[in-house]
Each structure stands twice: as C-alpha cells, then as structure tokens.
Request: fold
Amino acid sequence: MNALDQVIAEMDFDFLGTGDHSMSVEGVRKVLGNDHFVFLDVRTDQELAYTVFPFAIHIPLHELPNRVSELPKDKCIVAFCSSIFRGAVAYTYLMANGFDEVKGLTASIEELVKIFKPGPLSKM
Reply:
C-alpha cells in the first residue's frame, strides 16, 4: 500500500468523527501567533491578488509538489483555500508525503476574513 492509499484508508468514520484533522475559525483565533502553527494558503495567485493573509505561507495547490520542501515537518500545517476543497486536497497530499501534523481549515475565506474586523481582533 502506498502512502496515499494509507492516508485515505485511515479516513474512516472514527477519524472523520473526531475532527482532529480539521480546524475551525475559532481554532484559528486561538492559535494565530503561535509559531507551532503554519498556515498554508493554497489559493491561486489570482485569488491572492484580492485577499492577502500576511500570517500565511502562500503556495498555490498546483505548485505544492514542487515546493513542499518549503514547509517545516516539525510544525502543524493548516491548509486553506477559498472554498475548503483545495485545502482538503493539500491536507491529503501533505499527509501522504510524511507530514505528521496537518489540519484543514473547515471555513470559507469569508468566514476567515470576519475574524480580522476590529471587534473580533480586539478579543484576540
């Protein structure tokens, strides 16, 4: 069984039910600024031109195979995109390539942007 087969085989009901593979917007709020967490923005360059998250490393999903060495394996990588789908693909790719601590953001970009308004920011 190859690494991708193994990652997918582990995605059973118990795995999905725990939610350990994911992070909510509230989770982002709690760990933002903690250097153990690295946020990976896998949106395209065109999307980035409209909304930038300065706390994240930007590697478009289609470039990830050639740039995966830019990511630290000793930290928790939180992958995200504009609609969750590419973040989930990045999650699976990283897990299949030897990253032990990976999460996928379970929120849209719109939900993520909301925590950077003055009210939510002041609570962080």
Summary: The mean pLDDT is 93. The chain has eight helices and five strands. The radius of gyration is 14 Å. Residues 82 and 109 are 5 Å apart (CA to CA).
